[in-house]
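Worked example (supplementary).
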Amino acid sequence: MKDALIIDGELTVAVAAEQQARLRAFLERGTAADVDLSGVTELDTAGLQLLLVARREAAQRGITLTFHNPSRAVHDVFVMAHLDLDGAPR
Amino acid sequence: MTDDDLADALDTFITEARELLQDFEEGLLGLEDEPSAQDSVNALFRTMHTLKGSAGLFGLHHLVAFTHVVETVLDSVREGELAVSAELVSALLPCGDHVSSMVEGVAAGRLDATTSETVDGDRLLAALQPFLTLSSPLAPVLAEPEVDTLRTWRLTLRFGPDSLRNGMDPLSFLRYLATMGVLERVTTLTDALPDAEQMDPETCYLGFVIDFVSGAAKADIEDVFDFVREDSQISIVPADGQADDYVKVIEGLPDQDRLGDLLVRSGAVTDLEIARALQIQQERNRTGDSLPPLGEILIETQTVPKPVVDAALGKQRKTADSRSQETQTIRVYANRLDKLIDLVGELVIAQSSVGIHRPDEEGYDEAQGEVMRLVEEVRHSALSLRMVPIGTTLRRFERVVRDVCVDLDKDVDLVITGGEAEMDKALVERIGDPLLHLVRNALDHGVEPRADRERQGKPIRGKLRLNAFHDAGSIVIEVADDGRGLNRDRILGKAVERGMVQPGTVMSDHEVYDLIFEPGFSTVETVSNLSGRGVGMDVVRRNIAELRGTIEVLTTAGAGTTFRIRLPLTLAIIDGFLVGVGPSAFIVPLDRVTECVELPPNAAERDCMYLRGEVLPFIRLRTIFDIAGTPPRRQNVVVIEQSGQRAGLVVDTLLGQFQTVIKPLGVLFSEARCISGSTILGNGEVALILDVGPLVAENVSREQVLV
Amino acid sequence: MSKTILIVDDSASVRQVVSIALRGAGYEVVTAADGQDALKQLDGKRIHLIISDVNMPNMDGITLVGEVKKLPSYKFTPIIMLTTESQEDKKRQAQAAGAKAWVTKPFQPAQMLAAVSKLIMP
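After joint prediction of all chains, the assembly is encoded as:
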């Protein structure tokens, strides 16, 4: 069974604490999930490291977490940092 | 920015400038009435500050340059370094008018200064010169970096944990980098990411390793990280496989002594990286004993790959080698060399002239004598080749004084006089170290800190004088400071404490000051970075004594100390005066001999005689050197003079002038006072060379007591 | 959505020229003439970066930095201080207060643009 999580708005240091809480609460449910990133307007290092930790945490719990529908902002960061959206760092 | 926008902005600037300048004049006049008004000083400063800032935006360099100086003056008033005076106000008032006229010029479309404006400006700035307490040069306009060939750099970026909280987003810097080149490979360093529970969402954990291809200079890449440098670890090194390029560049560079300069010029390292490595070097030097090599630090901090450092070290060594070969050559005055060659030419002719005469023929002796004379002259002339002016050695201290002053935070002017005085090259080389010690000592302990000098009403800038001159066949070198002078009580106290002097001993000032030359004597409680490292004045005196020289100290409390070194001109040869006592022969340096007289018969039993109404104390060589046999009926007195003191050497016979080649005495005789060396006479016998200084000092005062 | 920058300087011409340069590069710009004015401007807006002069009447730049750092929605906002080469101590004070970036006066518009671009892209 797969769940869907939609993350939207800013994913930056200014709101990092709230976004962290959302991600963690979602992981607690313990189901595999597609994370929809199409609504992310802004992604900075704080946001990026939140996503990376969430994915690693999920893997440790045996859950697959995949990032979907990246917005322009998310896409650009992943390309620049040479990271794959749906897997470990290249 | 469109032209319309710019014109619009320029209008704003002109309106703003006019308002500010109106206030400036009023503020200045008000300041004259109420010089302590901090508010109005602030406002005046801000006027020039704002004008300078705005003018810079429009590229109005003439306005920037002028307002910068006025701003600097007002800043010192604001900081309380400069008092408001009528003179200052009258110097500043026309400056406001001048800025106004330049602003009106801009309003009229002139974006550069006219010639008359430049002339006026220079005149006004000259009038401000006395008020400029510290120079703060305008930051130079940076030239655009040359677009170099493309290079690949390996950037390792570990951002400080607070970066995000400070508003510094590492990804932003990457985006900016991407405008300067290509991020060819990026590895996101996630190793510092903690477990989800421990993660602080506002702390920065990520780092990046980037292979960056760009034509930008290394310093420009470094500049990207200006704002995060303090808290982050930023390393920029030539990527693998690029080291060879730098090795080639380094090998092609002109000779350089300094490793840092070589590396910076090669483009592999920036000035900032060198500065940081030097700082690490200093810190380690402070904590440990050894000074780690700069190259090692650069490799260890991964600033630059080892092969590049090795190439630079190789280059440095090569430079040093070619330099040390240079020091084995000696500069010789052309006319002296010409004279020597002339003499050799004459000698060849004289020699052949001897060859055509048979020994019993008339003219043979004359030709032989000519050869002898020429040989003598050739030797003299050859020795003069070794004489060099001492100035080069003294001027080396300019750098020392500057560096030491920076370390000690003192202001000292170095004045060098008498640099043209000549001495033997070997001596010049060997006097360097003792002089260095004296110079450092004077800067460290002699010249007082600024505050002390100010309190005593002395000029803030101390003065250190190096002076050299010839005096009676010696060269005298003085190291004089205008500092605090030697402290008699402190020296005496220390000597008593160290058991060098019995408490209560009555000593003359001179004897007290002489104590500083005793082994193990140092009055400095805290060992400073410069002097006071165990190498004391005793070593200085010993070094000078080895050169057959003497050192004395003259001091006035509060006014300064002078160390006076007296050295022979050359180590190799002296003009001697040969005297005989019994079977022994002695040489008295001729420059110390003033006259010779016969020992008056009535003075035979006494220890002095009257010479033209003055008492002349005797030194009987026969007694001093314990020579057996009875003196002849007629004895002679050689009158010698040393440091203004005269004495008579009582000898048997006067044997005349003699060019004396000095042979040093062996270590066995190193304790022998009064003898400075030996020489071999024409007949193969040995003659001792008298050291007049100690001879007079040790014997005369005692003899005089008996008078 | 382009990023908004607040320029705080008592000189109208500095505000104007910097605004022109930044707008030309694609940023939104708002301006304030001193620290108090700046705090009013921050209220109710989303500002991504603040550029502030040090010397200003009413509230100077360093005080402003301290105040901004107290505002929950701006405590992580990057701040560029405008210092002069003779004010090394002011630069230190500003950094200690939390303004980690700086541009030295007098500057060319391109230098300001470079500093801004390091911190945020439009």
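Two points are worth noting when inspecting this output. Confidence is low (pLDDT under 50) at residues 138-147, 524-534, 702-707 of chain B. Chain B touches chain C through 49 residues (CB under 8 Å).
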